[in-house]
Amino acid sequence: MGKAWKFGDSISTDLIAPGRYFHLRSNLPELTKHVLEGARPEFSSQVHSGDFVVAGENFGLGSSREHAPTIIKVAGVKAVLAKSFARIFFRNCINIGLPAITCNTDEIDEGDELELDMEKGVVRNKTKGKELDFPPLPHVMNRILQEGGLVVFIKAHKSMEI
Amino acid sequence: MAGKTLSEKIIGEHCGREVKAGEVVIVDVDLSYVQDGTGPLTVRRMKEMGLEKAYNPKKTIFFLDHASPSPRMELSNDHELLRDFARKAGITLSDVGNGISHHNSLEKYACPGDIIVGADSHTCTNGALGAFGTGMGSTDVAAAIALGKTWMKVPDTYLVEVNGKLPKGVYSKDVILHLIGSISANGATYKALEFTGDTISGMSTAARSTIANMSVEAGAKAGLFTPDDETRNFLKAMGREEAFRDLKSDEDAEFEKRIEINADELEPLIACPHLVDNVKKISEIGKVKVDEVFIGTSCNGRLEDLHIAASILKGHTISPNLRVIVTPASRRVYMEALRDGTIETFMDAGALVTASGCGACDGVHLGILGDGEVCLATQPRNFKGRMGDADSFIYLGNPAVAAATALTGEISDPREVM
């Protein structure tokens, strides 16, 4: 179980992993200290392991920098929930093993206690006593995520045949 | 059976069977590349995968373009990692000063009908030649480099038909800004955009590449143009006419949506802070004082763009209230602009010209914005904090707007000085 951190629409990769920290991309622990700094400066110092990032439309638009979802994961975030995701960001999340869940995030408020059940395809809002369904991932993405990400998958199979 | 779109044809050729939009398929990749912001992670992912060789080293390129040359020790070390790995794996290295990945790709590597994956979101720029270029993250490109394959969903296509004559002071930048403003920054998420119409037929490859480049700003996976005589002439000028091939969507292809744009009615447009779809007519934005004008990037750093700006600046001096930074997209563009006097025009006017590369666009160096500063840039993005301080402001416009702004110190309509 973890706490919801609410964000608005159009959270760009420049808000998640700003270009001014470009030189820290090979130093993920340092870069993680600035995660989502452009949107909520207090986030990186106050987020707890198991918390959730909860946002509106088009989360992760912009750059292909995989560092953006990676530092969200390194910060301990359990999953990103949004009404919709930008394409490259979504794919990056799955590849690095960070669940990116598309659901109606209007049903979640800041600080709500959430629980994620990937198998049943449901987010349980313990604070509100509500369950939010989400659609299953496409087969390819589901396999990659289940095996722990694309690196683990390819290391095991040495092939793209998914 | 219905005909095929350009995307369906290209993807079908790369997985050995006919495909329809919506299918998920494994495809062969013709060209893979990374840049210095994403490449170090790609190298580490390849090592973690236990695959340290490139499947096709000659068609794998490492571009050092974001920090070109490196302004910081940490980035110098990242560059060394990339140079060393490229040397050992036989991968082609495009070192600092050669310029932006996508522009070099158009000049040297991309062919109509190719599938190109790049660890840079603007890899869709390759669509200007009719290549299916798409941006991915470091791990996806690591897999593509090592295995020569990737997986992708065959996208539905929006056909964007642009007809008419672009008025004075209006360019391809305004066509794509108009589209993004109309359909929004996620209006084409997961879709391919295909551009057609007589305005498009009359455009140079450079002008098309501005549109292809910014397709991702509407969320699109690719932004495609039909290879035509202009494409053939461009490839010929680059010394590789043999790369040309005819390829187009079938007449009865199924397009999910058709969007029409009347070029005659367009005006110079500005994307206002802090989102690319916050598009307004230049006549609507009022007085905006500017601290920095930036002309360059994968979007508008080509010779044609520099010519547009230089023609307005020629014989004039920039406003004393701002700085003007020009960054040619590639070494070739820089050399041509040197030879034809364009660089001299910029320098005479009081602008500064940097080495070719991505430059100030993403806040690494060569024009970082300070607290409260305002920039008018020809680049593709204006997200909050992108070019430096979190409290700076980025407006996007075409190269003529940039030059007119350079003269007055505030965002200005180029039609008044042309």
Outline the fold blueprint.
The complex is a heterodimer of chains A (162) and B (418).
Chain A: E1 2-6, H1 13-16, H2 28-32, H3 43-46, E2 52-55, H4 67-74, E3 79-82, H5 87-96, E4 100-102, E5 113-117, E6 122-125, E7 130-133, H6 139-146, H7 150-157
Parallel strand pairs in A: 1-2, 2-3, 3-4
Antiparallel strand pairs in A: 1-5, 5-6, 6-7
Helix pairs in contact in A: 5-6
Chain B: H1 6-13, E1 24-28, E2 31-35, H2 39-49, E3 60-63, H3 73-89, E4 92-94, H4 101-109, E5 115-118, E6 132-135, H5 138-147, E7 149-153, E8 157-163, H6 172-183, E9 192-196, H7 198-201, H8 205-214, E10 222-225, H9 229-237, E11 257-262, E12 269-271, E13 279-281, E14 292-296, H10 297-300, H11 303-313, E15 323-327, H12 331-339, H13 342-349, E16 352-353, E17 374-377, E18 393-396, H14 399-408
Parallel strand pairs in B: 2-3, 2-5, 3-4, 5-6, 8-9, 8-11, 9-10, 14-15, 14-17, 15-16, 17-18
Antiparallel strand pairs in B: 1-7, 12-13
Structure notes:
The complex is a heterodimer of chains A (162) and B (418). Chain A has 162 residues and is an alpha/beta fold. Chain A has one domain: Aconitase, domain 4 (Alpha-Beta Barrel). Chain A has helices spanning 13-16, 28-32, 43-46, 67-74, 87-96, 139-146, 150-157, and strands at 2-6, 52-55, 79-82, 100-102, 113-117, 122-125, 130-133. The mean pLDDT of chain A is 95. Chain B is an alpha/beta fold. Chain B has two domains: 7-262, Aconitase, domain 3 (2-Layer Sandwich), CATH 3.30.499; 270-416, Aconitase, domain 3 (2-Layer Sandwich). In chain B, helix 11 runs parallel beside helix 14. Chains A and B meet through helix 1, helix 5 and helix 7 of A and helix 2, helix 3, helix 5 and strand 7 of B.
